[in-house]
Amino acid sequence: xxxxxxxxxxxxxxEALSSEKAVLCDEAVKKTARQIKxxxxxxxxxxxxxxxxxxxxxxxxxDSDRNRADHMGMLSTAINSLAMQGAxxxxxxxxxxxxxxxxxxxxxxxxxRAAMEALSQxxxxxxxxxxxxxxxxxxxxxxxxxxxIKANALMLAKNIDAVYSADPRIDKxxxxxxxxxxxxxxxxxxxxxxITTITLCRDYKLPIIFFELSSExxxxxxxxxxxxxxxxx
Length: 233
Prior knowledge:
The chain is α/β, with parallel strands linked by helices. The protein has helices spanning 26-41, 66-90, 112-120, 138-148, 182-187, 195-203, 218-223; strands at 7-12, 45-50, 95-99, 108-109, 124-128, 153-158, 163-164, 176-177, 179-180, 208-212, 230-232.
């Protein structure tokens, strides 16, 4: 199959790296790394944003100050990013972690120039610490970084197979969408991602590929333009 998207930004939830027994599951991290290697070996330039929800999600904080909680969430994404870098490099995939927050002892500081240079060298680029600012989700950070590196698509790997009109785990009558417009997602308040992410992608015509990563071949099928979930454009 011909690959349609040559440079992509893959957004992973932190939960994708966890299991029932571990907040950060070694096997889950390695499994995801192997899928990324398969794509990189096929010639796709891959950048990653990994959420921190397996450790701490800022917006879910209760009594904590939201600003402080989001800072803690950013550190969670850095932990996940370093874990993924280690897993990738253990199977021969060169990678670099670029952080929106300076932490020179652990990783390099983000700049679009550094990201573009690493991608041109066929390294997997992992963006840590979101946008570096509180109140912005890692989905929004993924859209922003995708635009900055001139990605062909933003790929949202979720734990559900597509965008639905309601939560299909609760509502058996929920409608599954194979394709949506940005405006439809906003007008119907569909829970594909947050509104900031949708409007940013709409304004710059960046397609969003929503799919479930758990199936081993979904990633490659989506890259080849096959609709394995929901395409938002």
